């Protein structure tokens, strides 16, 4: 009896060390694949749990981290495990409250499972090495001239096409344009700090923010950080997880101009709002410029903390209205001219009449026409326009619903409709589900969280991952691309 027990224990412990060894190798490979920053932010927070049958459990200290790791690295973790250790076929990511406590108290010692089962394995031993690598990276970044525009690890690079010169001004956007120009010429001047730009999707908010940033940078030594509110949140939470909160705060508070795009994303995210509020105050008090965009005015952004709302409304609030026919024509003329391909005025008028939603779609339609004309070597005509844009224009007339998408996709792949919202993760079900999420994002105007809810209450990061994954796969796999295009075609007609 006793002997059997000790044999069991010996077996368990050799199995354990094999698992640990596999896990360390997987971590090493992931570090090579994702880079030090991402690694330190996400992968390093994972602790190894027990193997049950062919399923290995990995723990993360918080739901947010678990969801993010699952969406971004779930599949990769699974395939790495399968390669490393054939005994492992599935990876289960769980939240472990003990790991959470450990992270909060700074105690990174390995966690024992309840009842003395397989030991969790902390990989904190790697932390110092990573920190050193990160320091090296930052030292390089600090000396590189291009880095005075944005901190690589903090902000997102600016899009060089989004200049003031490329922005077409008309009645709906002239006020926002003028405010943006004013802030670019005289940042942090009284009455213009913060600059709050708002308006519907695809109307030029991001374009104007980048234009401000590009102009400021072109004039010299000024540090500009641009990021979406979503990115701000991820970075903020990641900094708490990796205990580099001070560093994050200092980096943010050291910029001359901070731009946060799509602030509506912070609705309901209270601790992130709080952090943003403090950053905001620190920067404004220090005479730095803040620029924020959102889909609604400060007073209409319900779910924002009152004191933040008040401060956001204190500077200049400028809205971008829906486009008018005249503005759409001017934009089309400018873009057609820039393309170098002649487009008859009749065609531009036709487009301006048909596509009224936003500039992004207008631009997309024109680009498609021009690409088609270049490809077949024939000039753009009204007939070719109607033909090339048939699908797109039809989609404008018809509203596709997520239910329809789920039904069609399930039918096409011969799976049950309920599997669109089930928890099953077998490839045969998961892939069609991802395709349906992808199509929902492409063909409807639903937000990521709304789509997630329709697919069995999944998190928006899961949807985001699905969209990215399918776009990627469509490039690599012509068969899959064809299926998706076929489905899109069926749904749109
Ligand atoms: P938003 O951030 O408001 O959703 P974007 O700034 O991303 O919109 O604009 C969507 C697309 O339309 C971009 O490619 C942008 O360059 C273009 N665009 C929007 N407004 C204009 C404009 N007034 N002139 C030229 N291009 C524009
Ligand atoms: Mg935008």
UniProtKB/TrEMBL annotation:
Entries under Pfam families matching the protein: Bac_DnaA (PF00308), Bac_DnaA_C (PF08299), DnaA_N (PF11638)
Region span, Domain III, AAA+ region: 157-373
Transmembrane segments: none
SUPFAM superfamilies for the chain: P-loop containing nucleoside triphosphate hydrolases, TrpR-like
Residues the entry annotates as binding ATP: 202, 204-206
Region of interest (Domain I, interacts with DnaA modulators), residue spans: 1-103
InterPro entries in the cross-refs: AAA+_ATPase, Chromosome_initiator_DnaA, Chromosome_initiator_DnaA-like, Chromosome_initiator_DnaA_CS, DnaA_C, DnaA_dom, DnaA_N_dom, DnaA_N_sf
The entry's keywords: ATP-binding, Cytoplasm, DNA replication, DNA-binding, Lipid-binding, Nucleotide-binding
Localization per record: Cytoplasm
CDD domains: AAA, Bac_DnaA_C
Spans annotated as Disordered: 99-118
Annotated AAA+ ATPase domain residues: 191-321
Region entry Domain IV, binds dsDNA, spans: 374-493
Chromosomal replication initiator DnaA C-terminal domain span: 401-470
Protein family (similarity comment): Belongs to the DnaA family.
Domain notes for this protein: Domain I is involved in oligomerization and binding regulators, domain II is flexibile and of varying length in different bacteria, domain III forms the AAA+ region, while domain IV binds dsDNA.
Summary of the function given for this chain in its UniProt record: Plays an essential role in the initiation and regulation of chromosomal replication. ATP-DnaA binds to the origin of replication (oriC) to initiate formation of the DNA replication initiation complex once per cell cycle. Binds the DnaA box (a 9 base pair repeat at the origin) and separates the double-stranded (ds)DNA. Forms a right-handed helical filament on oriC DNA; dsDNA binds to the exterior of the filament while single-stranded (ss)DNA is stabiized in the filament's interior.
Assembly description: Oligomerizes as a right-handed, spiral filament on DNA at oriC.
UniProt-recorded name of the protein: Chromosomal replication initiator protein DnaA
Species for this entry: Bombella apis
Gene name of this polypeptide: dnaA
């Amino acid at each position: 009896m006793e002997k059997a027990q000790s044999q069991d224990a010996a077996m368990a412990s050799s199995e354990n060390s094999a698992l640990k060894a596999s896990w360390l190798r997987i971590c090493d490979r992931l570090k090579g694949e994702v880079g030090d920053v991402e690694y330190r932010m996400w992968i390093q927070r994972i602790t190894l749990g027990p193997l049950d049958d062919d399923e290995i459990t990995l723990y993360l200290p918080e739901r947010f981290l678990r969801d993010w790791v699952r969406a971004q690295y779930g599949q990769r973790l699974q395939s790495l495990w399968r390669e490393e250790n054939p005994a492992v076929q599935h990876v289960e990511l769980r939240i472990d409250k003990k790991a959470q406590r450990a992270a909060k108290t700074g105690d990174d010692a390995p966690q024992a499972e309840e009842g003395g089962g397989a030991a969790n394995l902390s990989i904190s031993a790697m932390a110092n090495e990573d920190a050193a690598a990160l320091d090296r990276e930052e030292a390089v970044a600090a000396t590189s001239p291009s880095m005075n525009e944005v901190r690589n690890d903090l902000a997102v690079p600016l899009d060089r096409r989004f200049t003031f010169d490329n922005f077409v001004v008309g009645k709906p956007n002239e006020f926002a344009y003028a405010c943006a120009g004013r802030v670019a010429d005289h940042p942090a001047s009284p009455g213009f700090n913060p600059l709050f730009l708002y308006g519907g999707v695809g109307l030029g908010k991001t374009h104007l923010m980048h234009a401000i940033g590009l102009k400021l940078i072109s004039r010299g030594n000024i540090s500009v950080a641009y990021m979406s509110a979503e990115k701000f949140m991820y970075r903020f939470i990641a900094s708490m997880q990796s205990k580099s909160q001070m560093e994050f705060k200092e980096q943010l508070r050291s910029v001359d101009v901070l731009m946060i795009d799509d602030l509506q994303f912070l609705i309901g995210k209270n601790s992130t709002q709080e952090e943003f509020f403090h950053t905001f105050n620190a920067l404004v008090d220090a005479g730095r410029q803040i620029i924020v965009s959102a889909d609604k005015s400060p007073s209409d952004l319900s779910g924002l903390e009152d004191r933040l709302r008040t401060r956001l409304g204190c500077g200049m609030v400028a809205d971008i209205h829906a486009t008018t026919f005249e503005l759409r024509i001017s934009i089309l003329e400018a873009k057609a001219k820039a393309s170098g391909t002649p487009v008859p005025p009749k065609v531009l008028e036709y487009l301006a009449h048909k596509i009224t939603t936003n500039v992004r779609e207008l631009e997309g339609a024109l680009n498609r026409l021009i690409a088609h004309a270049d490809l077949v070597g024939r000039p753009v005509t009204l007939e070719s326009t109607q033909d090339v844009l048939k699908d797109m224009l039809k989609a404008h007339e018809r509203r596709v619903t997520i239910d329809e998408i789920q039904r069609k996709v399930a039918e096409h792949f011969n799976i049950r409709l309920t599997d669109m919202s089930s928890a099953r993760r077998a490839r045969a079900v998961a892939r069609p589900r991802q395709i349906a999420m992808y199509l929902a994002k492409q063909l409807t105007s639903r937000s990521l969280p709304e789509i997630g809810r329709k697919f069995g209450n999944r998190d928006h990061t899961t949807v985001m991952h699905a969209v990215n994954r399918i776009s990627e796969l469509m490039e690599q796999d012509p068969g899959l691309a064809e299926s998706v295009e076929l489905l899109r075609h069926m749904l749109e007609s």
